[in-house]
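Ticket #4471: structure export looks truncated?
Reporter: QA, pipeline team
Priority: medium

Steps to reproduce: submit the single chain below to the structure queue and open the exported record.
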Amino acid sequence: MVLGKYAEADVEVIRLDPADVSANRKKAVNSWKKATKDDALAGKILDSQVAFMQSLGLL
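Actual output as written to the record:
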């Protein structure tokens, strides 16, 4: 397991509560949209990633 190698190297692995992650994903989309700064290509990329996350049931 990859995470075991990090633990062996004294790297602290932080896991977020799945409920917190789920509750905040939709909020994150607004931040992602702001980060595109109305750039057409960045918006297109974001739209594709959002669609992909929706297809996985993550959004």
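Status: closed, not a bug. The export was complete when the record was re-opened. Leaving a note from the reviewer for reference: The mean pLDDT is 92.
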